[in-house]
Amino acid sequence: MNNSVLKVSCTGNNAFGTCFAISNTKNSTLFLTCGHVINDCNSGDILVDNRRAVVVENLYAEGLDLALLKVDDFIIEPLSFCGADDDQCHEVVGFTNLGSDIKKEKISKLRIKNDIEIIKKTLDVKVNAIKIYADEEISKGYSGSPIINTNSGKVVGVISLKVGTSTNFGIANSHINDLHEIEIYETSRVNNKKLNSELSTEEIYYIEKILDNEFQEGLNCFSSKNPVWNKPKLHSFDEIDVKGSVKGSSIEVDEIIKEPRSIVINSYQQHGLSSLAKYITKKAWESDVRSFWLYLDVNDLKPHNKDILKVVNRRLNKLKLKREDVSCVIIDEVSTSVKEIQKILSIINDIFIDLPLLIMMSKVDNDLINEEIDYDKIRYFENKYLWSLNRSEIRNIVTCYNSDKKYIDEDEIVISKLISDLQVLNIPRTPLNCLTFLKIYEYDFDETPINRTEMIGKILYLLFNVDLIPKYKSRPDLKDVEFVLGYLCEKFIRDHLFEFTRDYFVSEISNFCYDSDIDIETDVIFDVLYSNGIIIHRRDRFCFKFSYWVLYFAAHRMHQNHDFENFVLSDMNYTSYPEIIEYYAGIRRNSSKVLEVLYEDISKTRSNVENKCNMPDDFDIYSELLWSPTDESLSSVKNMLEAGAKGSRLPNEIKDHYADKSYDSTKPLSQTIHKILEDYSFLRLMRGIHSASKALRNSDYADSRLRHKLMSEIVYSWELIIKFQVLLSPIICRDKYVTVDGARFGLKDCFSDDSTEAMMELIPVIPTNVIRWFQDDIFSKKMGSFFYKNFKKHDRALALHTIALLVVAKRPIDWDIFIDTYIRGLDKNSYYLSSICEELYEQYQFSFASSKELSSIEKLIKLSIAKHDGVRRLNAKSINKVEIGVSPQRVE
User: Fold this and answer.
1) If pLDDT is split at 50, 70 and 90, which confidence band does 368 have?
2) Upper half-sphere CA count for residue 67 (Cβ side, 13 Å)
3) Which fold has domain 201-385?
4) Is it the case that residue 783 has pLDDT exceeding 80?
5) Which CATH architecture has domain 2-185?
6) 167, burial (CB in 10 Å: exposed 0-12, middle 13-18, buried 19+)
C-alpha cells in the first residue's frame, strides 16, 4: 500500500503534493491527486516520483479539486476503494517538508465524519466531503493523499482542503468516477463483534449476574430497591429545541446495540444516564449476538494512560475477559465538572481507536468545577438526547411503586398529585425527582413542599428520623446534622475541594462538634448519607453525588455564620453557584437582605454593560417589524441594525461587519467576543440574573416593594440581553456559532444557510429564546398575581412582551385572562402580536399541558388571528368563527 503513494512535483518550481495509483493499463499507471496540486506545479513538466506524467484531466476549474495523471512505462499496484464509515479508524500517507528535504510519512489514528456537503456557490457545485479529525497537523504536502480505512486498507477519499491548523477535509471517492471509473466496495463493519474468548455456560451466567446486579444497584434510591425501569427513547435533538424538530425523530436503545457507533448521549443530571449505561451493557450481553460492552465510570479514571489501562484490565480480569472481547466502550458520568476530562477521553479514544465509544454526558447546570470538552479533537460523535419523563412513564413509576413498595393511594390520584407537585415546584420530571416525592408521600401524602429547599429538608427528615438506624447508634437531630454539614460544606466551597476520605469527613465534623459543644455520633451522619446514595465512592475517595447537596448545606451555613454569608454575597461570588442563593432564600422565604444585594449587583452590572456598549436610546428594532414584514420594513430593520452598531462602543471588528462587505469571514472572532463578555460584564450579568431569579422565586415573604424592584431590574436586563443578541445576530448567522469562555451563541440547523435570510429568521425569536434561558429560574405557580402587577410598572413594549412570553410559557393562575387582555391591546399588524401567537402555537403543539389549558391556548390563538384580521368586535361569537384549520396539530 505504501508503495502505491508517490510524490507529485514539477521541473520548474519547488511545489509538491501527493498522488496514488488507481488503475493500470498494459504499460502505464493512472494516478489521482488534487487539482490545486497540479495548478501549483505549473512550471515545467509534471513529475510523479521523478517520472514525467501527463495530465489526463483537471476538474479544479469546474469546482472539483481532483486531477488524473498518467505515467507511461511504469506499473504500480493500484489501491482499492470502499465506502466511508465514521466508526472505523483511518490513516493517510503523504509527503511533507523536513527542513530542506521532503519526507514520506503515515499519520494514523484518524477519525472521520462522512457525508458533509460543501457548496461551491460561484460554480453551483456540491461536493460530498469528509471531515478529518487528527491529533497532529496534516500539512499542505498531503494534498492528494489517500484517506485509507485502517482495517481494510481501502481508500475512502482524497485529502483536499485544510482549514486552520487542525481541520482537514477530503473529497469522497464517489467523485473519482467523474475522472475515471472505479469500483467502490461495501465497507464491512467490525463493530458488535462476537466474543473472542471461549466461555463456558457457567462463565456466561456469572457475567450476566454481575451486569444485572450492577444495573439493579443503579436503580436503588434512598437505601431501598427501586422496582421501576422505563426503557427510554433517545432523540436526535435537545428537549428544549423540540419546537423546531421533526416529530418522531427518536431511536430505541436496542437499535444502538444492534448497530453500535460513536455517540454522545446528552442529558441533564438525575435523568437516569448511569442506569441507562448499565442497562445497555446488560442488554448487549443478553442479545442474540452476544457482545461485551466495557463500562467505565470516568470518576474512577485518572488522566494517565497507565492508570486507565489498570482500570480497564481490572474490569476485564474480574469478568475473565480479554481486550479482544470488547465490542464497544461506554464512558459514564462524563461532564464538564470532571477534572481533565478532555485528556481522559482522548486517552480512552487512543486505547480503543478501532471501537465505537458511547459517552454518557451529563449537563451540569452549576458546575463546582468547569472544564471544556472539544469532541472534534477526539473523533466524530453523533449526538442523542435523553428527555424528561412523559405522563405514561410517570404512570409506570407510580404503578410499580404502589404495588411493590408502601401503598400510597389509588394510582390516578397519586399520578395527578405528583405531576401537579412537579409543576408547582418547577422541578424536572426525572425518575429521581418522582421517586423523591413518592418517598415523601409514603409518610405525608396530603402536604406539598413549598420549594426545593423544603423538599430536600423533608427527605433528610425521613432519612434521619423515620428510616432505620442501627439500634446501638443514637439518632442524630436533623438540625444538628444541617448545622455540622453546613460547616463542612463551607470548607469545600472556600477550598474548592469536593472529594474527601471517610476519616476526613468524620474527623472534621467531630472537631467542629467538640468546639461547638454538640454531642453527636458523626459516623452515623456519614453512614446514612452513604447508604442512601447522597455520598458516593469515587476512586479512593468520596464526594456528594450531586452538587446541590453541598449547596443546600452551605445555604444553611450562611444563615448560621455571617462571615460565610458575606463571603458568598460579596463580589458576586454567588454567581459561581446560583443554587446556594435559591436554598438560602428558601429556608426562611423572607430574605430581604439578599434581594437588596442582588438588586444592587445586577443594576450596577447592567449599567456597566450599557455604558460600555453605548447602544442608542432609540434602538428598538421590534417596533419596525410587522406581523408580515414588507420589503420596506425589512430595509428599515437592516438600517437600524447598522446605525445601532455604528453608534455603539462595540469593538471595530463587529462594526466592520455592517460597513465592509469584503469583511474577512475567516477571521477569528473569539477575541472580540471575549472582550465583550469579559470587559462588558455580559456573562456576569447573565449569571447574576440566574441567581436573582432563584432568590426572587423563593422570597415569598420579603418586602413586596423590594421584590418588584428586583423583578423590574431583571426585566430591564432581559431587554438589554435581547438587544445585544440582535446586534450580534449578523455575525452569529454568518459563522453559525461563537463559543467563548464557556458561553456559546449559535444557530440550529433549522435556520437558512444564507446568512441574511437566517438573520431575519433569528431576530424575531430572540426574545422567546432569552426568556427560555431564565423562565425556569424565576417561575412559581404562586407568582401569577406578582407578574401581573409588575407588568403594569413597565411602559416599554419589549419589557411588556417579555413578561407576556413568560406567562404563556409557564401559565400561572389566571394566565389566560391576562394574555387575553394583552392581545386585545396590541396593534393588529405588530410584531408583538405575531410573536405571542407563535408562542401560543408552540405551547399547544409541544408543552406538557392539561386539556383545560389546551382549550384556553386554542381560544387565544383564534383571538390573535381575529385581531390580526381586523375583526372589530372580538367577542366569543366572532372568535369562534375563526376557522379551526388555524389550530396547530398537537404533538404528544
Assistant:
1) very low
2) 26
3) Rossmann fold (3.40.50)
4) yes
5) Beta Barrel (2.40)
6) middle
